[in-house]
């Protein structure tokens, strides 16, 4: 992957600060924070390393700026989940620039994988946003009630992250060489079908799992 393509996120009229931030997001997402150096970021952004320091002070402060930017973008998209019109806008946004969209997701996935200080903020914020959306849907009757809304929010975020960061073998299992709009469309429809209609024909499996869990909680703990 060439450096110019690595940091390309839209208009050539971006400010130097935005170019540096976008280049850093791309490098941090691909190589991780520890392996990325400011000289590589500067080269991708087409500026000097001194200018990077001038605008951001240090690599840690640059990462903080990247964290804030990516989080704002992802939260805007999270809000759109509750609005069918916005969902269409998000789909068009992905199709118009899948590289930029994917970079933000990979950046967050890398932060979570490396357990960086931003990881807790990313996860908690997205889960909080998802929980609010779920509770609003339950309140207005568009969603079925849940016995554990918080756990459902965590599961929702987990599914979304897993889908957007699919490993290549899973993508190929669907008959595609790489992830893209066609993969997301196919999985998205299947996911909505599952969420809307369910998968099991009755609640036998659910009741069995609940009974097994309750039995494990009631049984005396084994002596260690």
TrEMBL record:
Organism of provenance: Nonomuraea helvata
Pfam families: TetR_C_25 (PF17933), TetR_N (PF00440)
Limits of the HTH tetR-type domain: 14-74
Taxonomic lineage: Bacteria, Bacillati, Actinomycetota, Actinomycetes, Streptosporangiales
UniProt DNA-binding residue ranges: 37-56
InterPro entries: Homeodomain-like_sf, HTH-type_TetR-like_transc_reg, HTH_TetR, Tet_transcr_reg_TetR-rel_C_sf, TetR_C_25
Keywords of this entry: DNA-binding, Transcription, Transcription regulation
Protein name: TetR family transcriptional regulator
SUPFAM superfamilies: Homeodomain-like, Tetracyclin repressor-like, C-terminal domain
PANTHER family reported for this sequence: HTH-TYPE TRANSCRIPTIONAL REGULATOR BETI, HTH-TYPE TRANSCRIPTIONAL REGULATOR RUTR
